[in-house]
Amino acid sequence: MPGQCAAQASGEGLAAMVKPSPISPTVDFDRNGVQHGFLRLPYSRDDSAWGSVMIPVCVVRNGQGPAALLTGGNHGDEYEGPLALYDLARTLDPKDVSGTVIIVPAMNYPAFRAGTRTSPIDKGNMNRAFPGRPDGTVTEKITDYFQRELLPRADIVFDFHSGGRTLDFVPFCAAHILPDKGQEGKAFAAVEAFSAPFSVKMLEIDAVGMYDTAAEEMGKVFVTTELGGGGTSRAETVRIARRGIMNVLRHEGIVKGSVDKHSTRWLDMPSGDCFAFAEEDGMIETMVDLGEAVEAGAVIARIHSTGRTGQAPQEIRAKMSGLLAARHFPGLVKAGDCVSVVAVE
Ligand SMILES: [Zn+2]
Domain Succinylglutamate desuccinylase/Aspartoacylase catalytic: where (predicted)? Predict the structure, then answer.
């Protein structure tokens, strides 16, 4: 039923102007059992005249009940989510489910295939492209489908992230501080159930166009993660992802069984002072490792200019006391790059 939700939301007059999504699912979201299929998006190009982008999707449904929408690969170079979700799609038994689980392990599939944060087709950053357009770029067509077709079906939305090639994080699950305290409370309860080593009350640098914002504005419970980074995954972070997503589904009553609870340390990002940015290009020397305590004013990193010898490094200092929650990953840094994030316990 492409376009139906938008038509309902925007009234008769406007509905006539809203184009249907070009994406057709090969699964039926209302059918019981397990279905493995695709969100098929026509994409005509040099090597395939009438070709399509085939985004894998799995639906596991067993009768009436709450619906979870689980996504990974929103950014194409983050792997804990796809590893956990391809695994879940292969193993989840509908007998253990009450309600619906929709799994899209690699949301920005062109970016995932290329191993890049953004789409190689249009350079689209999926997490800045909401609400999207049915007649926009490939990335915008995918976000439009999530906005109008998938998000309205969900009660809880879980979106996996890690740092990608350029950032590395202490493993955490997170939700946002929200004006609706009921919605916020449900999200933080799900974060606690996920049982990552760290749990974060998150502040965004740039919330416009995010999947998070789109889901929260629809009143959905939205939970996310940052589980490492560097453009790869680690055994520990993949274990956290697999255990955590089952915990959240059990906590929501969608999957049978009790939550496998592990202790978590709550972190806050109280203001923009959490973030530090490079002001020049160079070679970065981290002075503090992830998870270590830092005092306000302490040097977290030094940026060495490499064009000539004899230059003093630029010092990056912590603007607040806390622990190092994220850092720039590659050895070289450019002006404007996010160098570090300090969070408060
Ligand atoms: Zn990401």
Answer: 64-251
Q: What pLDDT score was predicted for residue 342?
A: 96
- For residue 2, the one-letter residue type is P
Query: How far, rounded to the nearest angstrom, does the alpha carbon of residue 133 sit from its chain's CA centroid?
Result: 20
Percent of the chain whose pLDDT exceeds 70: 95
Distance (Å, rounded) from C-alpha 112 to C-alpha 45? Answer: 19
**Which amino acid appears at position 194 of this protein?**
F
Residue linked to tokens 């067509």: 141
Task: Say yes or no: 191 and 312 in one domain.
Answer: no
CA of 154 to the centre of ligand 1 (A): 21
Q: Are 132 and 23 in contact (CB under 8 A)?
A: no
Distance (Å) from CA 227 to ligand 1 centroid = 10
Same structural domain, 263 and 335:
no
74 C-alpha vs ligand 1 centroid, how far in Å? 6
How many contiguous H segments (helices) and E segments (strands) does the chain have? 7, 19
pLDDT tens-place string over residues 262-284: 999 999 988 889 999 999 999 99
Do 59 and 129 share a domain, yes or no? yes
**Domain endpoint, select from 209, 233, 267:** 267
The rounded Å distance from CA 111 to ligand 1 centre is: 12
**202 CA to centre of ligand 1 in angstroms:** 14
Continuous H helices in the chain: 4-15, 80-91, 109-114, 138-145, 181-194, 211-217, 235-251
Kindly give the distance from the C-alpha atom of residue 207 to the centroid of ligand 1, in angstroms, as a whole number. 13
Where residue 4 falls among pLDDT bands split at 50, 70, 90? very low
Same domain, 30 and 51: yes
Ligand 1 center to residue 58 CA distance, Å?
A: 21
Please count the CA atoms within 13 angstroms of the CA of 123 that sit on its side-chain side: 0
Q: What is the pLDDT of residue 16?
A: 53
Distance (angstroms) between ligand 1 centre and the Cα of 163 equals 6
The answer to whether position 1 is within a domain reads: no
User: Residues 320, 185: one domain?
Assistant: no
